[in-house]
Amino acid sequence: MSTLPNCPSCSSAYTYEDGSLFICPECAHEWTMAEDGVKSEETNVVRDANGNILQDGDSVTVIKDLKVKGSSTVVKMGTKVKNIRLVDGDHDIDCKIDTHGAMKLKSEFVKKI
């Protein structure tokens, strides 16, 4: 009988293996095991248009005029956005632009300053 690791999130013993992932049915947490047996979290690396890795708190510049959905305004190319926050989803940057307020951006349309 093989022993599967407990969930690193909720410590549940009812984990199961699905391909290369371990899954906890109680909290829906998914993770992988590194080759040396140390637990490693599945991380999603967000990169800008130039391939630089983005992190929470970075400042970025918009590289293309972007239409604001539901409005006739445009976020102009060269607009600086400070203190970004990375989120999961299609639009992976959550930010606040001075002239437009809170909005979500795609990382492919920004570059790191």
Keywords:
elongated; 33% strand; 3-stranded antiparallel β-sheet; 4-stranded antiparallel β-sheet
Structure explained in plain terms:
By secondary structure, the chain is mainly beta. The protein is 0% helix and 33% strand. A four-stranded antiparallel sheet has the order 1-2-3-4, with no helix packed on it. Strand 2 and strand 3 form a beta hairpin. The chain is elongated. The N and C termini lie far apart (53 Å). 9% of the residues are buried. The model is unreliable at 35-42 (pLDDT under 50). This is Protein PhnA. It holds the Pfam family YjdM.
Structural class: mainly beta
Name the overall outline.
elongated
Q: Sheet with the most strands?
A: 4 strands, antiparallel
Radius of gyration: 19 Å
In terms of per-residue confidence, which ranges show pLDDT below 50 for 5 or more consecutive residues?
35-42
Q: Average pLDDT, to the nearest integer? A: 86
How far apart are the termini?
Answer: 53 Å
Largest sheet: spatial strand order: 1-2-3-4
Percent of residues in beta strands?
Answer: 25-35%
* Helix run count: 0
Percent helix = under 10%
Order of SSEs: EEEEEEEEEEEE
- Total DSSP E strands: 12
